[in-house]
């Protein structure tokens, strides 16, 4: 997606903003470089995976020593980037689909998966516009803060969730701490590419719970993703920076 005109054509009637998709598309070539522009995601991914694995085991009553807890299950990662989460989900046994608004990301993801010998389907486009059925597991990591219409985006995620399925979302919280660390510090000093985040678009846990409830979904107890010089990024009881939650169909 080289310019806003192309982005607008791809994202007609979309929840993803064209400029956001273009921004992340420009990062596609470096996505798998652990020292490149996506270095922070490489540090964040193991933390998210720990939460995801525990949530999968708990939701489907799976022994935590099982090597393939997603065997026989389908998984969809929305806003998948170049596949940093899709590939571990595939290794956990899932039949994985990744979708991203930026074609560059879907292409980079597909190339990396092929090189890794993983069979993952990647789609470029808007999740609400795809006829892809439903999935046992739906994930969307650090995406909802980038969408133009959060309610429509949540509704599109809900439509992709199979009966009895599990959804997992993560997003920055809108607090003074997230403004200081994720924008003023991280973007100023290059830990996160400049222009990645807009603090006003961050969403609090209460706001997210309300959005999910409006879509017929129930949010579990959020868990924080915190940072300290000693621990780095880690799961935490502190929600002030970033948080991750499980979501299920209400009732």
Automatic annotation (TrEMBL):
What is the E.C. number? 2.1.1.222, 2.1.1.64
Keyword list, A-Z: Methyltransferase, S-adenosyl-L-methionine, Transferase, Ubiquinone biosynthesis
Pathway listed for it?
Answer: Cofactor biosynthesis; ubiquinone biosynthesis
Q: Which family does it belong to?
A: Belongs to the methyltransferase superfamily. UbiG/COQ3 family.
**Record's InterPro entries?**
SAM-dependent_MTases_sf (IPR029063), UbiG_MeTrfase (IPR010233)
The UniProt entry, under Pfam families, shows: Methyltransf_23
SUPFAM superfamilies annotated for this entry? S-adenosyl-L-methionine-dependent methyltransferases
The record's Gene Ontology biological-process terms are: methylation
Per the UniProt entry, what species is this protein from, by scientific name?
Answer: Croceibacterium xixiisoli
- Binding positions for S-adenosyl-L-methionine? 48, 79, 100, 141
Name of this chain's protein: Ubiquinone biosynthesis O-methyltransferase
Catalytic activity annotation = a 3-demethylubiquinol + S-adenosyl-L-methionine = a ubiquinol + S-adenosyl-L-homocysteine + H(+); a 3-(all-trans-polyprenyl)benzene-1,2-diol + S-adenosyl-L-methionine = a 2-methoxy-6-(all-trans-polyprenyl)phenol + S-adenosyl-L-homocysteine + H(+)
Describe its function: O-methyltransferase that catalyzes the 2 O-methylation steps in the ubiquinone biosynthetic pathway.
Q: Which GO terms describe its molecular function?
A: 2-polyprenyl-6-hydroxyphenol methylase activity; 3-demethylubiquinol 3-O-methyltransferase activity; polyprenyldihydroxybenzoate methyltransferase activity
Record-linked Gene3D superfamilies: Vaccinia Virus protein VP39
């Amino acid at each position: 997606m080289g310019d806003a005109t192309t982005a607008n054509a791809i994202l007609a009637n979309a929840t993803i903003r064209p400029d956001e998709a273009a921004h992340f598309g420009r990062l596609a070539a470096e996505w798998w470089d652990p020292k490149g522009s996506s270095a922070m995601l490489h540090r964040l991914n193991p933390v998210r995976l720990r939460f995801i694995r525990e949530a999968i085991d708990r939701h489907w009553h799976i022994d935590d020593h099982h090597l393939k807890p997603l065997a026989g299950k389908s998984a969809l990662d929305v806003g998948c980037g170049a596949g940093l989460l899709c590939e571990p989900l595939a290794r956990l046994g899932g039949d994985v689909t990744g979708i991203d608004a930026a074609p560059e990301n879907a292409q980079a993801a597909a190339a990396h998966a092929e090189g890794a010998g993983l069979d993952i389907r990647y789609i470029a486009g808007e999740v609400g516009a795809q006829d892809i059925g439903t999935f046992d597991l739906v994930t969307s990591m650090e995406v909802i803060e980038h969408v133009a219409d959060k309610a429509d985006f949540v509704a599109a995620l809900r439509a992709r969730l199979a009966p009895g399925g599990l959804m997992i979302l993560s997003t920055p919280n809108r607090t003074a701490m997230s403004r200081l660390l994720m924008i003023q510090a991280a973007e100023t000093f290059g830990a996160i590419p400049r222009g990645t985040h807009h603090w006003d678009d961050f969403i609090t846990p209460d706001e997210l719970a309300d959005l999910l409830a409006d879509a017929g979904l129930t949010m579990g107890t959020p868990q924080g993703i915190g940072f300290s010089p000693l621990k780095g990024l880690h799961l935490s009881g502190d929600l002030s920076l970033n948080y991750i939650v499980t979501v299920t169909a209400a009732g």
